[in-house]
Design goal:
This protein is of the alpha/beta class and about 260 residues long. The chain contains six helices and 16 strands. Helices cover about 20% and strands about 30% of the residues. Strands 8, 9, 10, 11, 12, 13, 14, 15 and 16 form a nine-stranded mixed beta sheet that branches. A seven-stranded mixed beta sheet has the order 1-2-3-4-5-6-7, with helices on one face.
Length: about 260
């Protein structure tokens, strides 16, 4: 991205900014990201699929870019799936998680990690850090609840704003020359009095699933399966802007 380009961000209800990098900023002070899946390359290597170990550096670069733009940030919240492997925690995951935490604690006064379905044994790995809080189910602060989204959490709708991950939403769009590309996207909707923001995977490797072609019955999150997503608007994460789309129902009506 050129230094003379100012990234376009989207403000949700004067409280939440959606960033091109795939994170959301609350009240200018708290950054929420989700689905880093650190150690993914190593897990793939155990199955015989070898790929460059670049994801950690990509994640750190995105985080640095956000911090450079948002000088008031004090707290980082990871809304689940910091690591990738389900059943255990490999040595390379320990290494990547610790490298990420050391980096994050240089940038933020406090880090909160909400457990995701991939985060087995993560609590043990984070015990060494005094400024890290591990939440098993939800992080509740002021008007906000942050959950991963893999469970239909009873606390999810207890505040005016719910921020979640897990779904890895993406949208397929055409660029100026007609090329078809898949890009990560936010989903923003409402259930009752609660405004909902579904985050894309923060890791650029995880482009996600085309949310427009996904039947509600096959959505990953039981929260979204229950409430439905037809009235959610989509916001695509491009290199230097967040591009607003109509509701899912409106887009599907013209497909």
């Amino acid at each position: 991205m050129s230094d003379d380009i100012i990234p376009k961000e989207v403000l949700v209800d004067s409280k939440i900014k959606l960033l091109p990098e795939g994170g959301a900023v609350i009240d200018d002070k708290i950054l929420v990201i989700a689905d880093l899946h650190l150690g993914f390359e190593g897990v793939m290597a155990t199955s015989g699929l070898f790929m460059p170990r670049i994801m950690l550096e990509d994640v750190k670069a995105l985080l640095s870019r956000i911090v450079d733009k948002h000088k008031k940030l004090e707290e980082l919240v990871v809304a689940g799936d910091m690591k990738h492997e389900f059943a255990e925690m490999h040595g390379f995951e320990w290494k990547d998680v610790h490298a990420f935490m050391e980096f994050a604690l240089e940038k933020f006064k406090r880090v909160v990690v909400v457990r995701g379905n991939h985060d087995n044994y993560l609590k043990v790995a984070l015990k060494r850090y005094e400024r890290v809080v591990f939440e098993e189910a939800a992080y509740v602060k002021d008007d906000f609840v942050v959950v991963h989204g893999d469970k239909d959490n009873v606390a999810a709708f207890s505040r005016p704003f719910l921020i979640m991950g897990h779904e890895h939403p993406a949208i397929v769009v055409k660029d100026d020359v007609g090329a078809v590309v898949r890009t990560r996207c936010f989903m923003v909707g409402k259930y009752g009095r609660t405004r909902i923001v579904v985050l894309p995977a923060f890791s650029p490797i995880f482009m996600g699933t085309d949310i427009l072609s996904m039947p509600d019955s096959e959505l990953l999150s039981p929260i979204l399966r229950r409430i439905g997503i037809e009235d959610f608007k989509l916001y695509a994460c491009l290199e230097d802007e967040v591009l607003e789309f109509p509701t899912i129902a409106e887009i599907r009506a013209h497909m």
